[in-house]
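Write out the 3D structure for:
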Amino acid sequence: MASSLFKTLIRSSNSPSLARNLSLVRVQVGNHTAKWMQDTSKKSPMELINEVPPIKVEGRIVACEGDSNPALGHPIEFICLDLSEPAICKYCGLRYVQDHHH
């Protein structure tokens, strides 16, 4: 599905109307982002994720999916916890540490 859509976009990319539409989308996304960034009453996504304490796990490797609901998560990221500092998921920013039982 996405492949055929991409091929159609490439074939019609010489069309001035498509180029104009794509530039409008770019402007709208840019305006939305700028408006969101100006609202200092809201925390940024990185500030929100940094408020979550590191998650303690017993094993050496954790599988992060971002959320228990697959529709809201991200691709599975297997993270090795051999280092002493928290390991960070590259998709969602959740931090994990190995819980050593002594």
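The longest helix spans residues 16-38.
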